[in-house]
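Quick one, T. Sequence first:
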Amino acid sequence: MNRSLLELISEYQACVNYLCSLFGDYYKNLDEDGIMRSYRVKIIPKEGYLGKIYFCFHGAGCYFKTETDEVELDFGPYSRCDGFDKYRLFYFLQNRRSKYPDLLDEDYFSNEFDKLVTGGVISKLPPPHVSELFYWKDSVEAVK
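Structure tokens:
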């Protein structure tokens, strides 16, 4: 298993969890069904700022831009924001190039990601959940 990729996934999840938590700080009346629902019923605007952090909702997700970073996420079932895929992780990696130099080759990155899938470390949620996002295997099993 590629230690750098595991660390990158953990860093991505910590970052998106923090960013999503900011909505609760700025919008006290969030819908109980989560951030995306709050956006859809117009409690949260399509785009705006959480302090100095810019956000913009799109499709099933949200884009964030901080002073030093850009983060792209899609929300999963139950308003989960801890899901990831190759695209979002590779995008996240671009502002961490010096920290994870071994992951910069896109083919290598893709192969290492696939090894985590075939090794059972990460997986998608089981039916009836329809999502292209991956999660740590133990968090998937808790949903079954």
